[in-house]
């Protein structure tokens, strides 16, 4: 039997929740999450798109950047909590990112290896996409993904996004081609309507 959110996360958890899906709750990252973040950021398989597992200072800098984003924008990458257990299983959220000569709003996601292939990334990413349109009033949302990162590309495509361009990021001493995935507010509305119609077909 699944535990209630209050039982696994504490009675004040509901006040901290930014987004909630059927299986997940998203909240701001905290300093106390550092060890859980390291389970992802220091895992070479999880970080393969970055070409290396993070060192301690890189993981600390990553957390600092999210906390600064909360202060500057009111959003950033959030902690993804599995409701059933209260575990921090990943990160997903919205960040401002450079895309060539402009800045765009991006949905980003990163999950612990032992929680891959469960649909959590798509579940969280779709909720963040909708948050961008409904709460932030965004007209379009992007995901900027390394061209060799097939799993992340699949999530973006299932999130209703299509490729609209490409950029090259210079990182860790190498050039890394990235694809720009994009979805507009009107496209997101049409996608939601189509899914609702598909659901009705199975009622």
Automatic annotation (TrEMBL):
PANTHER family: GNAT FAMILY, PUTATIVE (AFU_ORTHOLOGUE AFUA_3G00765)-RELATED-RELATED (PTHR43792), N-ACETYLTRANSFERASE DOMAIN-CONTAINING PROTEIN (PTHR43792:SF1)
Taxonomy of the source species: Bacteria, Bacillati, Bacillota, Clostridia, Lachnospirales
One GO MF term: acyltransferase activity, transferring groups other than amino-acyl groups
Keyword Transferase: yes
Domain annotation N-acetyltransferase: ranges: 24-186
Keywords from the UniProt entry: Transferase
Gene3D superfamilies: 3.40.630.30
Pfam families according to UniProt: Acetyltransf_3
Record's protein name: N-acetyltransferase
């Amino acid at each position: 039997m699944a535990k209630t959110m209050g039982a696994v996360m504490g009675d004040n958890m509901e006040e901290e929740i930014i987004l909630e899906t059927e299986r997940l709750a998203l909240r701001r990252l905290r300093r106390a999450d550092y060890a859980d973040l390291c389970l992802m950021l220091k895992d070479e398989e999880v970080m393969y798109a970055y070409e290396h597992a993070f060192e301690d200072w890189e993981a600390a800098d990553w957390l600092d950047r999210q906390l600064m984003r909360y202060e500057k924008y009111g959003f950033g990458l959030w902690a993804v909590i599995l409701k059933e257990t209260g575990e921090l299983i990943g990160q997903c959220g919205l960040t401002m990112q450079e895309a060539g000569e402009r800045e765009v709003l991006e949905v980003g996601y990163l999950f612990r290896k032992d929680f891959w292939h469960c649909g959590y990334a798509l579940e969280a990413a779709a909720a963040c996409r909708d948050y961008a349109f409904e709460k932030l009033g965004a007209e379009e949302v992007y995901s900027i993904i390394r061209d060799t990162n097939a799993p992340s590309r699949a999530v973006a495509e299932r999130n209703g996004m299509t490729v609209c361009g490409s950029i090259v990021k210079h990182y860790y001493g190498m050039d890394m081609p990235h694809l720009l995935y994009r979805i507009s507010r009107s496209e997101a509305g049409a996608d939601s309507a189509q899914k609702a119609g598909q659901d009705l077909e199975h009622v």
